[in-house]
Amino acid sequence: MSQNEQRTAYRAKLLTFVGDPAETSGGACFEEDGLLVVEGGHVVAAGPYASLREQITPGTAIVERPGKLIAPGFIDTHVHYPQTEMIASPAAGLLPWLDTYTFPTERGFADPEHASNVAEFFLDQLVSCGTTTALTYCTVHKGSADALFEASEARNLRMVAGKVLMDRNCPEFLRDTAQSGYDDSAALIERWHKRGRQLYALTPRFAPTSTHEQLEACGALARLHPDVFIQSHVSENTDEVKWVKELFPGHRSYLDVYEHYGLLRRRAVYGHCIYLDDNDRARMAETGAVASHCPTSNLFLGSGLFDFDKAGSAKMPVALGTDVGGGTSFSMLQTMNEAHKIARMTGHHLTAERMFWLATAGAAQALGLEDTVGTLRPGSEADFIVLDPEATPLLARRSGLAQSPEEWLFAFAMLGDDRAVLETYAAGKRVHRRA
Ligand code: GUN
Ligand code: ZN
């Protein structure tokens, strides 16, 4: 019997969610001595050991992880796998960074062998950081999406990905056309959307690199496939916002360009959302579109500060992303760390519970995947991680003095990275163990 079929009970501390801790008191559920029971790749039960011990039926394998924390696997809602090798490439802001590093790097993904090689390394990085689901951009090349999905399928990860659509304002060697982008995306949806754990995302890079015809074609595909994801960038950088105003005159705002083409809806995820106005935030909330806040990228590229208070007042769905290679870490713990600091800069306090929510159950809810991943709720796919509070001497010291679960979790968020991730499980099967 393979590892993911046998009933297995994991005993450790547990963290899961029944609601957003910012809105629901008791939204975060922390068990000091918990049990997680997994069978056939799904969660069977999760809760206090004392009340679930009868779930340990004859033949159940028992995995003891005393002192460790089991939490849902992290969800990175915005990342570019082809930019893995160009992480930490400095530039004077977004637009020069795209021209100098990003476009030349993405050219290499015309070679399927290179794409597969980077895709494997990228997934190694994700699981070593405890990330079990990511919304990833590929490149304009259809084969770059095949490479990522093939690598993900082989590990049985739940990934969302799409071929970039880009037919202007980029080098000739990275352009598709409205027609070829439509045809390639349609073929990839057919091949990969809902095949096993794979899901497709229509991926217009951002408004400046698509013509009116391409955005129209993308909107048509979106209408044909209401459960397919959409991912793009919006209002990340002041030069970018100005450029969009010139390229798309007559629109109320940058976000309105996407709305005009039918690209604001549930399962549409927009990276950054820094320079939105209240009207934009209200439209995000009304349509169910999701803001992916990418703090390490926003600081690295000097893009600006995301406003949690305004996002909250507007009830705009929010999740977290790494945005590697603009972001500087694949770790969602490091991403929480920087999110916390950006929130502080705007007078907002992000609790550890809320940061873990944003990186797990909150993201799943925003993406319409709340019955699938993001919690330890029975019936969910068993994507979970084992975090080690003694991963480093400093984390051990700080954790040892924590006076509450909130303080204990907060230490992970400020001091943790891939070293804190002892094990990562996808659909009940271990896909990473720290060396
Ligand atoms: N805007 C358009 N393309 C990109 C990209 O690759 N990264 C980031 N951070 N912003 C973008
Ligand atoms: Zn991005």
Describe the 3D structure.
This protein is α/β, with parallel strands linked by helices and 435 residues long. The chain has two domains: 8-72 and 375-433, Urease, subunit C, domain 1 (Roll), CATH 2.30.40; 74-350, TIM Barrel (Alpha-Beta Barrel). It is 37% helix and 23% strand. It has 16 helices and 16 strands. The strands form two sheets. Strands 5, 6, 7, 8, 9, 10, 11, 12 and 13 form a nine-stranded parallel β-sheet that branches. Strands 3-2-1-4-14-15-16 form a seven-stranded mixed β-sheet, with helices on both faces. Helix 5 (178-192) links the parallel strand 8 (164-165) and strand 9 (199-204). Guanine is lined by residues 80, 94, 98, 102, 205-206, 233, 236, 297, 323, 326. Guanine binds next to helix 2. GO terms for molecular function: guanine deaminase activity; zinc ion binding. One of its GO terms (biological process) is guanine catabolic process.
Lay out the secondary structure.
Blueprint: E1 8-17, E2 28-39, E3 42-48, H1 49-52, E4 61-72, E5 74-80, H2 94-107, H3 112-128, E6 131-137, H4 142-155, E7 160-162, E8 164-165, H5 178-192, E9 199-204, H6 212-224, E10 229-234, H7 238-247, H8 254-260, E11 268-272, H9 278-287, E12 290-293, H10 295-300, H11 308-314, E13 318-320, H12 332-345, H13 352-358, H14 361-366, E14 384-387, H15 393-400, H16 405-415, E15 421-426, E16 429-433
Parallel strand pairs: 1-4, 5-6, 6-7, 7-9, 8-9, 9-10, 10-11, 11-12, 12-13
Antiparallel strand pairs: 1-2, 2-3, 4-14, 14-15, 15-16
The structure holds guanine and zinc ion.
